[in-house]
Amino acid sequence: MCCFLPFIVIEPYKPFERPSWDDYFMIQAILAKSRSNCLSRQIGAVLVKNNRQISTGYNGTPTGIINCFEGGCKRCSERINGVIKSGESLDRCICVHAEANAIMQCVMFGNTGSTHNATLYSTLSPCIECSKMAITVGIGRIVVLSKYTEDGTEILKQANIQLSEMDPSKLQYWLLKLCN
Predict the structure, then answer these.
(1) Rounded mean pLDDT of 43-56?
(2) Of 48, 87, 105, 174, whose Cβ has the fewest other Cβ atoms within 10 Å?
(3) Are 35 and 29 in contact (CB under 8 A)?
(4) Catalytic pick from 99, 129, 154, 165?
(5) β-pair type (119-122, 162-165)
(6) For residue 1, is pLDDT > 50?
């Protein structure tokens, strides 16, 4: 039994039971989120082509910059300390979004062509900037776990990119099973 979920009973194992592709890759995005170093919010993303993971990303300060949780992003520190409100001074945040990191990983490792008609899984719907990046690199579908109020839904619709929100309760069985 999982040490942090001792009160939950998991159904008996069923032979050859497997998660759907969407469940599987969203679980990967949840795992990627655990690497986030952002004080404000932890997000994970996975880029997939033909049911193969091609990159992952999580939000936080750029490589070589002091981690956000260690004081690297003054804007996030001010938000956590109540100096500014959520959504304010976003232009001062130096953290890179999970979706942007996943897209940039493709560029860094030379597999940018693989983003055409790829699926982006993210634990939060992409902001307008990340939505523009997704459109530019040809992502065809985006699956999210929850919605961000300032997301790029409208421009994604204009670009004919399918945006769907998963029901988090669908993942509960698989996440619990991982703990067993």
Answers:
(1) 96
(2) 87
(3) no
(4) 99
(5) unpaired
(6) no
